[in-house]
Design goal:
Length: 245
């Protein structure tokens, strides 16, 4: 099942002057990325661009090449493209660590991310940090990958915006901790990926309602999501990527 269309928006939000989030769609390589950078102005935003460039460069070298060397990771459980995706993430993480090691602490950046690749009717999702992904199929909304954040340690859902601190991310620890999911899309499926500036003040029922709404475009649906969370006090950067199959 091929990707039919997509909509994406990344914004600094209602308060901040700099957007450290980022979205990248590469239709040629069939790789889609959502980032939530951190480190501050002129740090987190540059880190996101650095990661985009290195992931795309490495994936372009080995994705789809059965003779390619996979230096960081290999599992027969995943397609070649899935293994290439994970190696690309580990490569970008290693390059970011080298970059950060040359800088004082206040200039070091990092980022949560969700990277998606498409091959042989399988969509592979790999995430680190506080990005979340849902699938929508025939009226049912399902979480595909939950954020690796403090939310997983909370014993209730009271003010989950307090628990969105990432427990993993690019540039955060020596080792990159990645969560992986595979998804076989069917005709009419949607894949929704959001940073915490979009999902933290929105419950699943409200997201489903917006996805099913009669708004004229998916960009309007994304803007509706942003409007709802901003009306509830969001001050963070916010990004959303919606893929239609």
């Amino acid at each position: 099942m091929e990707l039919k269309s997509y909509a994406a928006k990344s914004h600094q939000g209602p308060y901040l002057q700099v957007n450290e989030d980022g979205v990248e769609v590469d239709l040629m390589q069939k790789i889609y990325m959502v980032f939530d950078g951190f480190g501050g102005s002129n740090v987190g935003d540059k880190t996101v661009e650095f990661l985009k460039e290195n992931i795309k460069k490495f994936y372009g070298k080995i994705g789809g090449d059965p003779e390619a060397t996979l230096p960081f990771f290999y599992s027969p459980k995943y397609l070649l493209e899935g293994n290439a995706l994970l190696n690309s993430m580990h490569y970008a993480h290693s390059m970011l660590k080298k970059e950060n090691a040359q800088k004082p602490m206040h200039e070091r950046g990092g980022a949560s991310a969700m990277i998606v690749c498409e091959a042989d009717n399988i969509v592979t999702l790999a995430s680190t940090g506080n990005i979340c992904a849902w699938s929508y199929r025939r009226g049912k909304l399902s979480a595909l990958l939950l954020p690796d954040s403090m939310e997983s340690l909370a014993r209730d859902n009271h003010e989950k915006t307090y628990y969105t601190t990432p427990l993993s991310a690019f540039g955060l620890f020596d080792d990159l901790h990645v969560r992986i999911a595979e998804f076989r899309p069917k005709d009419g499926d949607k894949l929704i990926i959001m940073t915490d500036g979009a999902y933290a003040r929105l419950d699943d029922g409200e997201l489903k309602y917006i996805v099913e709404s009669k708004l004229s475009s998916d960009l309007d649906r994304i803007q509706e999501i942003f409007g709802v969370v901003n009306s509830r006090g969001n001050l963070d950067n916010q990004s959303c990527l919606l893929l239609n199959f």
